[in-house]
Amino acid sequence: MFLEFTYFQAVIIGFIQGITELFPISSLGHAILIPAWLGGTFKDFISEENQTYLLISIAMHLASSVALFLVFRKRWSNLILGSIRALKVRNFQNTQFKVLSYIVIATIPVGVLGLAFDDYFQNIFGKPEFSAVFLTINGLILIGAERLSRRDVAHELPDSDAEIDHRVNVKRSVVIGFGQSLALFAGISRFGVTMSSGLLSKLNHSVASDFAFLLSLPVILGASIVKLPQLFTTEANQLIGQIAVGSIVSFICTYISVTFLVRWFKTRTLYPFAIYCLIFGILSLLRFA
Fold first, then answer.
1. Residues near 65 by Cβ (< 8 Å), separated by ≥ 6?
2. What is the largest CA-CA distance in the chain?
3. In three state form, how does the secondary structure of 225-248 look?
4. Cβ contact 138:26 at 8 Å
5. Per-residue pLDDT tens for 68-91?
6. 198 contacts 211 by C-beta, under 8 angstroms
7. Cβ-proximal residues to 273 (8 Å cutoff; 6+ apart), any chain
8. What is the mean pLDDT of residues 44-71?
9. Cys-Cys crosslink for 288: which of 15, 129, 150, 271, Cβ 3.0 to 4.6 Å?
């Protein structure tokens, strides 16, 4: 049975998606837990039997990716154009070429695992008890990364392609890529676990967050390319207006949140977000388990 999804609900989901996408607190986890806490028809709509909600979430993720690209548009332009020039002259030590290669390498694990276990992740999507568990685990991951990296790496301010080139390598890219794959579970933050993997690989906070920001874009775009055509071949095509409104809200909120976080992670830690995830995750676990 087709369930109603109102414009007001679309605004709420767009706001949740935009604010939480790049905060290390899991946008998908919140997109499930907050409606579950609100209850009523909203909770019914996110149920695992209703795959329309997954498509709506992916559409709003795509809006976030557009905002993310705009914030880093100069970086992406330099990376792409620099890599093209490097290929023409076969200069494989070019900084832009190496950084873009690291991004591609780190994206491969999540792409392969996402496709291989797609049915499993869809089956547990929409179950608030699972999201509560994974959000709690997310908090523990953030705390663990900070504690284990605290004595190894000091905070440093520079964040540029040159810094990533200097500090990241193929091995670290693979490790960070597999770490990023944990975000396939709704409740594990993609940005949070990617940055945590970077910290555990001996990157400083500035470079770890910078690399995590860049890695967010290809994963979101890849999921959108694979899934979004279903918007026009399923019941979701009846909700295009609501999805458009929610996506606009998601875009605006993502742009604001990213510009804030870029400054935050220059000198600050993951601890406040970790504590929040533990509190909200445990409360949700008690509520829905």
1. 216, 217, 220, 221, 224
2. 61
3. HHHHHHHHCCHHHHHHHHHHHHHH
4. yes
5. 999 999 999 999 999 999 999 999
6. yes
7. 23, 24, 25, 139, 142, 192
8. 83
9. 129
